[in-house]
Design goal:
Chain lengths: 120, 167
């Protein structure tokens, strides 16, 4: 009975604001950092925030269904796939260039590609 | 009452460590901060009553993905190596952009959601979960389940193909 009164007073916005902070921390890291590993960590933060939102909306607004739960579940699995492939690519880049900065990736483009001609 | 205290603690931990994770100059610290964020998110799933999601989050994210991260960091960085800080211009631009985004989204959220507190106490039993995951009817997920298993296989093969040593 006590739990009925005091247990359920976390509002939905609480979860969404937590997800929001996590998401924009990820966005900040994605834009500002230059190491590929840091970018990957930021992507994980973004995906995690999205998962949290799915679960919270599902539980609060449509508790009789469980689509949000399963969507979060499949998102976690796909995030695992994405991380495994990304880390394989990063290790391969490190082997070729000895560096995993985004700036170093310029060495991978072809000598006379269109990118050279376009001046940003 | 206790749930509220736990929720606000977890929320503070998530906010603090997700900001620390993207600001740290040492990569391994960043990964550990990310681990804290993932574990606290698992705690939030527990508070929501999604026990299976909690277990998956701990096993796949905090277990599998973090091990991958730490291996990759050790393979690509010397121990105690510091990343040199990014140009201040780039960091400022990113900060302005994300602060603008966070303000905008928070305004939209707080104006449109009137306090929803109807958290149901209904538990999803393991049997129900298994039937939903393995059924072929409406609102059941056999096809995505199989697609994800093929995706996992493809990504294992792809990761080995990409990362193996070439002669």
């Amino acid at each position: 009975m006590l739990n009925q009164f005091f247990g359920n007073i976390i509002p939905l916005e609480g979860y969404i604001v937590v997800g929001l902070i996590m998401f924009f921390a990820g966005i900040y890291g994605f834009i500002s950092r230059k190491s590929l590993m840091m970018i990957l960590i930021s992507v994980e933060l973004i995906l995690n925030a999205a998962d949290l939102n799915f679960a919270a909306f599902n539980r609060y607004l449509f508790p009789e269904h469980s689509e949000g739960l399963f969507f979060a579940l499949f998102t976690i699995v796909i995030a695992a796939c994405e991380t495994a492939v990304a880390i394989a690519i990063i290790i391969n880049i490190y082997r070729n260039l000895n560096n995993i900065d985004v700036d170093a990736l310029e060495a991978m483009q072809e000598p006379e590609s269109d990118f050279e001609k376009i001046k940003f | 009452m206790f749930e509220q205290v736990i929720f606000y603690t977890l929320a503070a931990v998530i906010a603090l460590f997700s900001i620390l994770a993207v600001n740290s100059t040492k990569l391994i610290r960043s990964a550990v901060y990310l681990l804290f964020v993932l574990l606290s998110t698992a705690g939030l799933y527990l508070l929501l009553g999604y026990y299976y999601l909690f277990a998956v989050q701990i096993a796949v994210y905090a277990g599998g993905i973090m091990v991958l991260f730490i291996f990759a960091i050790f393979l690509t960085h010397k121990p105690n190596e510091k990343i040199k800080p990014e140009p201040i211009k780039q960091r400022l631009a990113a900060m302005v952009l994300s602060l603008a985004g966070i303000t905008f989204c928070a305004a939209v959220i707080l104006q449109n959601i009137t306090r929803v507190i109807s958290l149901s106490t209904k538990e999803i039993s393991t049997k129900e979960l298994g039937i939903t995951l393995m059924g072929t009817e409406k609102f059941q997920y056999l096809l995505p389940f199989e697609a994800v298993s093929i995706l996992l296989l493809a990504c294992i093969v792809g990761a080995i193909m990409i990362a193996r040593k070439r002669n």
